[in-house]
Amino acid sequence: MKKYNIVVNGTAYTVDVEELGSAGSAQASASASVQAPVPAASAPASVQTPTPAGSNAAPSAGARRIECPMPGTILDVKVVPGQAVKGGDILLVLEAMKMENEITAPGDGTVDTVQVTKGASVSAGDLLLTLK
Q: Alpha helix locations (H) across the chain?
């Protein structure tokens, strides 16, 4: 039996796959081991001067990392550093598998850095931006 971790819409699942015979058929049984949501940080008292998207500035200490959930291409960057966001606000639009996926803020905060630009190719796990 092989064990795989699969992430669907930001929720992690552990899946056990067992090979049943030499015909190559497989049966999957999934047991949900859901990751705990990231706690929301309070908005800072001061706002930074915005820098251009894709500046690759170093993230501030304690900033929350927003990483790419799957490989694809950045279609649009909706935020700039220093911009205040609320949980659920659209940060980026990622095209993956011919579908547009909205990358949203996990909680309230301020955009710290934007590490990608429109048209950039990204891999799963790449740092997209950080929030404070």
A: none
Count of the separate structural domains present in the chain = 2
* Stated pTM of the model: 0.54
Of the chain, the percentage scoring pLDDT greater than 90 comes to: 46
DSSP string across 51-80 = --TT--PPPPTTPEEEE-SSSEEEEEE---
Q: Across the beta sheet with 99-104, what order do the strands follow? A: 99-104, 90-96, 72-77, 121-122
Tokens, residue 94: 């990622």
Domain membership of residue 24 as a residue range: 2-31
Q: What is the pLDDT of residues 23-51, one digit of tens each?
A: 554 455 444 444 444 444 444 443 333 33
**Residue 83: how many other CB atoms lie within 10 Å:** 16
